[in-house]
Write a structure and sequence with these properties.
Chain A is mainly α. Chain A is built from three helices and no strands. The longest helix of chain A has 25 residues. Chain A starts with a helix and ends with a helix. With 294 residues, chain B is mainly alpha-helical. Helix content of chain B is 48%, strand content 4%. The longest helix of chain B is centred in the middle third of the chain and has 19 residues. Classes of the chains: A mainly alpha (48), B mainly alpha (294).
Amino acid sequence: MKEKRMAVFTWLLLAASLAMCIYGAAAGEAQAVFMKAAAICMECIGLG
Amino acid sequence: MVKHIRKIVQIGWGFLTNAYVKGFLPGGQAIYTGALKRFCVPGMNCYSCPGALGACPIGSLQAALNERHRKFPFYVLGYLMAVGVFFGRFICGWLCLFGLLQELLYKIPVPKLTIPEKIDHMLRYLKYVVLAVLVIGLPLFYRGKYGAGEPFFCKYVCPVGTLEGGVPLVLLNSALRPALGFLFRWKMAILILCLTACVFIYRPFCRYICPLGAFYALFQKISVIRMTVDSGACTDCGLCKKTCPMRVDPQKQPNSPECIRCGECVKACPMHALSFTGPGRKKHAKEKKGEYVS
């Protein structure tokens, strides 16, 4: 029973995570990730 | 072939996610700037690597938290949670290029260092501190002169960025070399220290520092892909514990936050008492009756 409840929680959390991801992408956050990732990150390479 | 399947997947994934060959050509475009950079890769992979086709999830999370007009980072956090809930630290063992590099360095035949269990146990918590302070806390609360934050982990610690981004970019682009200063030397020192440690300790970065591994570890106990022990088949021989390179006891804690799902214990078990389960994978007969540890 405990196992079943945990499995339900896992799948609900997975669905909520995917919903968050889709909502964020629709709100333009994927574009913000792109803007950062498509330019050389000076901090990451030790020049920033 | 089956024995080496994890290595094949690790190498294949590394090539696949860093397949922008033009980035490695001198005088070419330094990094990939196409549409795939909207998507994060699941493992540590610097988005300033000349070959990188995707974005680094830890860099993207910090960038989202850094923004002057900050919003809740639904996209990156949702992505990280989804990967964590489905795979747990399976990503660390199978789809992380830096993890593969650490494993290869550990193969160098020199005497290995065994960290005393107590110290090892304490140091494992360091990665959660790195995640909470350098990846989330400081980028969220610290504001510089112009109101923007800083990606503290990427800037001051991340050896992956130095190795995959810093070193090749500096070697391939002479224009960047005059800008090298203290920060680059600091990050190179961390990288050298980390790579040297890898020769003597199995995956020290993953064990003690990696904030992405720490994040995925939070979901390990509930993840879809998980490990189970058939208590009916287990003879308590302790071979799985002896085999585990991450110093986990799979019999007692098959879903330990430290397990990277390398599968060494599954291969080692003579009774086939350990197995991975996930969608579509059948459980042991004993497991179905509830007589199993998970």
